[in-house]
Amino acid sequence: MRAGDARVLVTGASGGIGQASVEALLRAGAAVLLSGRAPEKLAVVAQDLRQRTGAAAGRVAWHAADLTRAADVAALARGAERFDVDVVVHAAGMPAFGRLESAAAGDLERLLATNLLAPMQLTRELLPHLRHRPRAQVVFVGSALGRLGLPGFSAYSASKFGLRGFAEALRRELADSRVRVQYLGPRSTRTGFNDTAVEAYNRHTGTAMDGVATVRRSPCA
Ligand SMILES: NC(=O)c1ccc[n+]([C@@H]2O[C@H](COP(=O)([O-])OP(=O)(O)OC[C@H]3O[C@@H](n4cnc5c(N)ncnc54)[C@H](OP(=O)(O)O)[C@@H]3O)[C@@H](O)[C@H]2O)c1
Predict the structure, then answer these.
(1) How many domains does the chain have?
(2) Which of 62, 140, 156, 183 is catalytic?
(3) Are 100 and 155 in contact (CB under 8 A)?
(4) Which domain holds residue 75?
C-alpha cells in the first residue's frame, strides 16, 4: 500500500512514537485518525501536526478513548469505521519498571488492559471492517522486551510477550485474507515513556536508547 492512499488509525498518537508515526504518515499523504485519552491534548497535537506537515484539515482527525474501558474501545472502533480506516497502528502503551512485589494488583491489571487486552479487543472489533478493505494492515508496537525478559520488567515483558504471540498467531490466522499483520519491537526510545529510574538502569547496563526517528524507520516482523 502506498502511504498516500492509506487511512490510518494511530492509538497512542499523543505520545512520542505515535506522534512521530503520524507525522511521517501525513508527510507521505495518508489521512490519520489520532487517538489518546485527553481531548485537549489531541486537539493541540492534531493542529500542530497539520501546521507542520501542511496536511489538509480533512486528512487529520482525532477521537479520545481510554483503552482500558471496553465502551471506549468499542466507540473508537465505530469512529475508525466511519473514518474508513485501512490501517491500524496500535502504539498506545504504558510502562512498568520495578520489583514485582512493589506493584499493586491494580497496576498489573491496568498494564495488561492497556498493553495487551486493548489492542486485542480493538483489532477484534475492527476486523469485520478491515476484511472488506483491499489492503488492510494492523501494526502492533511491541518492544524488544517482548522477546527478552530483564529484571525489573517482568510485568511489562509479560504484556509485550503476549502481544507478540497474539500478533504472530493472528498473522497466520489471517494468512488467507487481505489483512496483513505486523509487529514492531523497538529498543528503549527517548520519549516521555521512560522515567529517571529506567534511564539510570539503561546507563548502568549500557543499554542504548534510540530516537523516535529510528523507530519510525524500523522494519516490522
Ligand atoms: N519509549 C520506549 O522506550 C519504548 C520502547 C519500546 C516500545 N515502546 C512502546 O511504544 C509504544 C509508544 O510508546 P511511547 O514511547 O510513544 O510512549 P509515550 O510517549 O508515553 O506515549 C504513550 C501513548 O499511549 C497512550 N496511552 C497510555 N495509556 C492509554 C490508555 N489507557 N488509553 C489510551 N491511550 C493510552 C498515551 O496517551 P495519553 O495522551 O492519553 O497519555 C500516549 O499517547 C508503547 O506501546 C510502548 O510500550 C516504547
Answers:
(1) 1
(2) 156
(3) yes
(4) 3-217
